[in-house]
Design a protein that fits this description.
Two copies of one chain form a homodimer. Chain A is of the alpha/beta class. Chain A contains 14 helices and 13 strands. In chain A, helix 7 (149-158) links the parallel strand 5 (133-137) and strand 6.
Chain lengths: 341, 341
Amino acid sequence: MIDGHGDDVFRYGGNVKVNFSTNIHQGVDHSGLMRHLASCPRLLSNYPEPEPVSVEKKLSETIGIPVDDIIVTNGATEAIYLIARKMQGSRSAVVVPTFREYQDACAMYAHTVRFIPECEVLNGAFVDLKPNLAWLCNPNNPTGRVFNREVLLNIIDTCSETLFVVDQAYADYSVGDVLEVSDVLSRKNVIMLQSLTKQFAVPGLRIGYAVAPSEIISGLRIMRMPWSVNSFAIEASHYLLEHRKDYSIDRYQLHEEALGMSKALRRLGIECQDTDCNFILCRLPEGNASQLKEWLMHRYGLLIRDASNFETLDHAYFRVAAQDHESNELLIKCIEEWMSL
Amino acid sequence: MIDGHGDDVFRYGGNVKVNFSTNIHQGVDHSGLMRHLASCPRLLSNYPEPEPVSVEKKLSETIGIPVDDIIVTNGATEAIYLIARKMQGSRSAVVVPTFREYQDACAMYAHTVRFIPECEVLNGAFVDLKPNLAWLCNPNNPTGRVFNREVLLNIIDTCSETLFVVDQAYADYSVGDVLEVSDVLSRKNVIMLQSLTKQFAVPGLRIGYAVAPSEIISGLRIMRMPWSVNSFAIEASHYLLEHRKDYSIDRYQLHEEALGMSKALRRLGIECQDTDCNFILCRLPEGNASQLKEWLMHRYGLLIRDASNFETLDHAYFRVAAQDHESNELLIKCIEEWMSL
């Protein structure tokens, strides 16, 4: 999907004052990383590695897994498209509502796609359907829900003929128990997606990775075009992994903020789904999320995510991610103002 | 192809003193661009545009063509893979020796590939073969040869059932007459590839584009994954196009240098092909290019391109690109030393 993603700050020039539309925490100081990048003129004047093998090596050492079990990609998005291509023509199941790219990548490679509502995953929907490929976002975007780890592993083991793609891009924002790398590497039918984008709050760079048994990873590597990850993304990955202790996101504090926002929004009559993360899926009692979005943006420079284009959601849905307390309070006040117009 | 490209500076830590292995001019001052990038923290903290439409718009204005006739990609390489995919299963012809990615992209998408020697292009090889898709690099890498424009256009018009991909990434380094944008847009069977990488000497960024009639471009856009071009590449493109007058490459002076180098190398008994560019394809009278490369690198920090892995070339071929006069003289002296060992 090209239009309709969140974090569409680029549409509004310099007019966004607070960006609630992205699930990625906005309060990270990147000045050290930027100084480091600016000190490396070769990032402009030399080709990057054709494959980002130096990042794969460093990540594998950081995580403590063999380098053959990891592939670094141009954002997790490239991994999604590589997997869809590898499994061209599959019967795929996508747990919805969710990130749109699973479905789009499947459509591009002639999959037959069935949607499974999030609430039915733990009720055996996969067991009945027996898809070749299953896409789950965990925690899920836009709901913030984390699937119970034991139950999810049990489903994965029961459906041994299904390849599960578990996108854990938002794991660092979650207070729930997501899958461990060891859960993935001890099985033959799971690929875990991850994203430095989210972990270090650097979505502009496009750097993600997939972890899976080496037989799966080698099949993806063969299809990756050379130089898909540019020099800035490669250099930044090294810097971020070396300085990762400086980048800890306080997921508990952000989750607390999100719970506080949910409470305040519910008081206004807005439905809020229970979340395990920093972001909340909300539904207006009346009116359109797109109108609320435009009003908040043009009146106050506050950007939210119109969530009406997620599969199974309607015009009334929007998504917000907790920022600092003061900004969150401002948002609630402004939404209240809009509702009283 | 993952291994075996030129500009493999990343292999040698900081030990490369002069890089003759890339065709891209190394004498460009990027300090203004780097300062500009470092002044934009949002390049890290916000998503890029899902499609680099702002760059497409600016490029179309700069070139003076409709925006629908241009697609900006993650290096020209992404355009090559998109075209190969769009034409999946084609009978393709690749003019060789040449850049390896045409052949690799064709292999990835189940094309039947026939190689046409560069010297046979103007002799009607395409007319006999009638491929669905023809790949030409113009000027060609590694030979530096530019095809006669009138004759090439005549071939394109004669083979009206063949789609020609003419990669003009090195056009700004050429003293020959390459195709004009109007040559491409007045026909239905040509795609021209171009690269900001080469034009502005920024290969680390990965930014290229294709120009073709809108019917072709729209077919490629549909297959491009979102966010394939990252924020640094997008921002740099805007800066470079705005400051393009500061980035003029003196192709005539570089070509003069290349001719001087050819003369000196021939005096040593090395075969040098006639070039229209800044780079030269050379063949040792005896010994291996790979040995010469390693010796030059480890003894003097001079990096050349072992060209033995180009289709139809053998172990004796290497490629060098002219740098400043003093460095070029040093290289000749060092090659002479190696030959006398």
